[in-house]
Design a protein that fits this description.
Elements lengths: L1 E5 L9 E3 L2 H13 L4 E3 L12 E5 L5 H8 L7 E4 L6 H11 L5 H15 L4 H4 L35 H4 L2 H6 L2 H6 L26 H10 L11 E9 L3 E10 L2 E6 L7 E2 L14 E9 L15
Antiparallel strand pairs: 1-2, 1-4, 3-5, 4-5, 6-7, 6-10, 7-8, 8-9
Helix pairs in contact: 3-4
């Protein structure tokens, strides 16, 4: 059995479906025709929106998988395919296999992925700018919101994103809300952190009112604190997903960082600029908390596994 996951969400689990036997064979044939189209699962992208597919082989003894191995092409049990830079035709085909399997809610995510694939010739989508390179505009310094003057600290990680990216489990067990709360889990079975669960009630809908109330239940403050503080904000992809950012420190300066779903943590642009939010068009609020927050996941394994 092969499962396919459309890597597109940041806070919610990604859409996922099972290929039919005929579709498995078609996928393997495509891989054998172009082995370079598959990439290691660890090569995620710290960008919002479509990030390709994660394919998992659940039965390594199946005739289809064994046939692929006998051809001489080493197909991993988990791999990525269909990033904007490669395998575009295969990506369109994989999207077509989802249409019979996913719910109405995720149909919008499929449409968004199709739209990004259609724009994949744009080099900005193929390779997002690297803020560390000369000539690339630097993220603007976050400004405190609320009463008082915040002391912005990032207690655990600084910009040592290896705290989140150093191994497969850390990267895949934590989502944007884990990153925002500066609270890393090392167990895939815990599940992605979700706003409100620590406070006893997860948000009920993807609205600013619901998500902000959930953050307050988890202990976030609307105003700056007198002690060293972490500062976060969020935005909503209407009807689909949410995404959180957190201030991180670079050489004594503060910039924004984020971690889209099971992808690597990295520096980002200022989320107050709509151009840096992609599909997350509805801006939420800024929140503050001392140190790291204790957050909880759903209690089931996350999809990125």
């Amino acid at each position: 059995m092969f499962s396919v996951e459309l890597d597109i969400f940041s806070g919610r689990p990604n859409p996922r479906w099972i290929l039919s036997e005929a579709e498995e064979k078609e996928l393997v044939n495509r891989i054998l025709a172009d082995p370079a189209s598959i990439l290691p699962d660890t090569l995620g992208q710290a960008r919002l929106g479509y990030r390709g597919f994660i394919v998992r082989v659940h039965d390594s003894q199946s005739a289809t998988y064994q046939g692929a191995l006998k051809s001489g092409v080493q197909v991993p049990l988990i791999f990525r395919i269909g990033t904007p830079a490669q395998a575009l035709e295969g990506a369109h085909w994989l999207l077509s296999t989802a249409e019979k399997s996913i719910g109405k809610t995720d149909a919008t995510a499929l449409e968004a992925a199709e739209a990004e694939l259609a724009r994949a010739e744009d080099s900005a989508l193929v390779q997002p700018p690297d803020p560390s390179q000369p000539g690339v505009p630097q993220p603007s310094t976050p400004q405190p919101r609320g009463a008082g003057q915040c002391c912005l600290y990032n207690y655990l990680t600084g910009t040592d994103y290896g705290f989140w990216n150093s191994n497969w489990t850390y990267q895949h067990a934590n989502n944007c809300y884990n990153f925002a709360a500066n609270y890393r889990v090392g167990d895939l079975n815990v599940g992605f952190a979700q706003p409100g669960l620590q406070g006893g009630q997860v948000f009920g809908s993807l609205t600013v009112a619901e998500l902000s109330a959930a953050c307050r239940r988890d202990g976030w403050s609307d105003g700056c604190l007198s002690e060293p503080t972490i500062m976060v904000c969020y935005a909503i992809w209407p009807g689909q997903d949410y995404h959180f950012w957190r201030v991180v420190a670079i050489s004594g300066s503060n910039v924004w960082g984020n971690k889209p779903g099971c992808n690597p943590a990295a520096t980002s642009g200022d989320p107050s600029n709509p151009a840096n939010r992609g599909n997350y068009t509805t801006f939420g609020e800024y929140f503050y908390a001392p140190g790291s927050r204790v957050v909880q996941g759903y209690g089931t394994p996350p999809i990125c596994r």
